[in-house]
Amino acid sequence: MNTTIKLFSASAFIFMSSYAAAEIIAFENVNVIPMSQETVLLNQRVVVDNDKIAAIEPMSTIEHIKPNRRIDCQHKYLMPGFTDAHYHPRGATTTKDFEFFYKLLLANGVTTVVSMGEDFGQDAIAIKNNANKKDVLAPIYFAAGPMYHHDNLKTPKDALDIVDFHKKRGYDFIKVHDNFPKETYLALLSEAEKAGVPVVGHGQRDLPLEFTLRLTLIAHMEEVVMVFSDDKNFIVTEISDQKAQEIARQVKNSGVYISPTLTVVAKFHDYRNDGRLDALKQRPENQYLSKAEYKNYTTDGEEYRREIFSSPKGIATVDALIKNTQVLTQAFYNAGVPLLIGSDNIGLQITGFALHDEMEAMNKAGVPAFSVLNGATQLAARYLKRQAVAGTISEGKNAEFVLLSKNPLDDIKNTRDVQGVMIKGHWLDKKILDRFLKDVATARKQEK
Length: 448
Description:
By secondary structure, the chain is of the alpha/beta class. It has a domain at 81-390: Metal-dependent hydrolases (TIM Barrel). The chain has helices at 95-107, 124-131, 156-169, 182-195, 209-212, 222-227, 241-254, 262-266, 268-272, 274-281, 291-298, 307-310, 312-335, 353-364, 369-376, 378-383, 430-446; strands at 24-32, 41-49, 52-58, 69-72, 77-80, 82-87, 110-115, 140-148, 173-176, 199-201, 217-219, 257-259, 401-404, 418-423, 426-429. Strands 1, 2, 3, 4, 5, 13, 14 and 15 form an eight-stranded mixed sheet that branches. Helix 3 (156-169) packs parallel to helix 4 (182-195) and helix 7 (241-254) crosses helix 13 (312-335).
């Protein structure tokens, strides 16, 4: 068993809003998308007292709570903040690194993240505990432990030790990454259930689908595809519409959540094709990526620029993966499978911005805008057992919301135009969010 010694502890990351957390704020003339149902409440007054939603009422009614600050939101849309259910703080080893990630997330309306693996040199528990302090401007933070592969999870004894390690440390999830011996995998699931630590992650490609469905969350739609394919020989079996419907029924009956991460697979072709890569390299959000990460994903021979991805076999494999993930996504939506939104912010999947890419990809795959947004809000809150305090704009819930300039139910791309974010009792207006982005861009430009 490999439990890497952790070196980094996020100890003092605090950057406070200039507004006092105790004030009562009224967001006036705002259109509310509550996400408890597919509707828009026009011309509302949303009152926030400290960090709770104290009232939601038409502007035409007499206000029952007197605010000491009013914000005019005419023609704007207020909805719950977004959850990135598949986030990675890759390469972050300093307090400043994490500050950059948090600024990018908040500037994009992301108020909750699920960190899907503790990287070498990180202490995910210290990071989580610090991020969740009320005086730290960071998204609400959930953390999995180290990612486990077949080489560090070999025996049932390893499984028992790993569950004990996670329970004692206080991780929210155990993250599995690839195929394990059947007896080891079953021991892990059994012991984790006793300990109350959910197991999430990749599929068990050498076992029937039912074994993978014992997870609480499957990360990546292609993991479902590969259960039905030849993983060892890099061959993807085509999934027909009828087969997709059969799979969808089985997945729905299991109760498992899925985070499709469609954009990760779709970008494989962007990396391998010089013209498409050049276009990807021109995106303005690249300025927020570290120079090391940018170089790693745009240099020949590295990551997705490896020869395998440009070979005929590699191209055919990626084509089949893209097609099958699209087919399964639509089938899963039609069957009512709970689909969360996760960016897996890897390479040129820029932290924060990548969540909007994923929402657009889900919509393009046949998931209506409301259902996409539901996966980023209400469904995510229920998965994380936060439904009592988050996920909808409702009286008594936490004030974790985003203000948009246009209605995302009309066009999912409207999630990108963030005008403000409320988190932990702090109102971050457009000027503050723009400053966050500028801070990150300036620092990245100065990197060697």
